[in-house]
Amino acid sequence: MKFEKHVFICINRREGGKECCAAKGSEELAGVMKEEIKKRGLNKKIRINKAGCLDQCSKGISMVVYPEGVWYGQVTKEDIPEIIESHLIGNKPVERLRTT
Ligand code: FES
Q: Which of 11, 49, 50, 54 is the best mutation target for the ligand 1 pocket, counting ligand atoms within 8 Å of the beta carbon and taking the most?
């Protein structure tokens, strides 16, 4: 199976109250994104994976979309529909959330 898009979402938690994606709700966000993909019947084409630290902790919630290698930062649940519609379906990255 070859996915057309593969999304990695950081769900890492750092110890000692250091800034991290998990503290900003990334586990829940990953769940929401999976649900939204399923709802649209896209789960055979688009894969959402939880990832370890992406080394962009202060910019979290961080994610990266392949094959383009587009990175997003400060993503919230409210941004998910736009990322799906514009980028994952429409191939147009969401510029305002890009970190690279
Ligand atoms: S904790 Fe998410 S990028 Fe490091």
A: 54
The neighbouring-strand residues paired with 72 are: 63, 98
Domain of 62, in residue numbers: 5-97
Contact of 14 with 21, CB cutoff 8 Å: no
Residue 1 has pLDDT above 80, yes or no: no
The number of folded domains in the chain is 1
Amino acid, single-letter form, for residue 47 = R
Residues in the chain: 100
The alpha carbon of 61 and the centre of ligand 1 are apart by a number of angstroms equal to: 7
pTM: 0.95
